[in-house]
Amino acid sequence: MLTKPYGTTGVRLGAIGFGGMRFSNPTDTAASADLVRYAHSQGIDYFDTAPAYCDDRSEGIVGAALGSLPRGSFFVSTKSAQRDGARLRAELERSLERLRVDRIDFFHVWCLMSLEDWQARLAKGAIDAARRAQQDGLVRHLVCSSHMPGDEIATVLATDTFVGVTLGYNAINFPYRAAAVRTAERSAG
Fold first, then answer.
1. Which of 62, 162, 182 is nearest to 112 (CA)?
2. Which domains are seen in the chain, by residue range?
3. Rg (CA), the chain
């Protein structure tokens, strides 16, 4: 599998990851977990999920698969959109249990929609809670996901809170997100 460095984290990830947003039959945990294990057997090492995916079943599916794999053979990513710090921490702890891991490799502050949303997460403690979770060893790398315009995402990235960002960037919207990509690139050095 071709690998790429993830910014300045020192982590090299496979160029193809596994997204847990859609399983064909999420009520069949065993069959869905077999798909995750098969992807791993083919060299996939990055597994992304979230509490709400697949009617709140995705983390359990991914955890059923990853729980049987050597911990050093994969990276797991999940998310929280909670603004309140205590709620973010509770959701993170539930994610850890469901994923059957003691640490989330890439924890996303999920779905930042505006600078006002960012400010609310700061004010209500979500960002401090995410930082504490990292200090407590429950999170390896803090990242974010966003649907904001590129200049607004760039403003958030300039705070140096996150080591990465997940955003939609394609042939149609690239001018809309270009400032964010440039900022992320500069941060990665």
1. 162
2. 3-188 (3.20.20.100)
3. 16
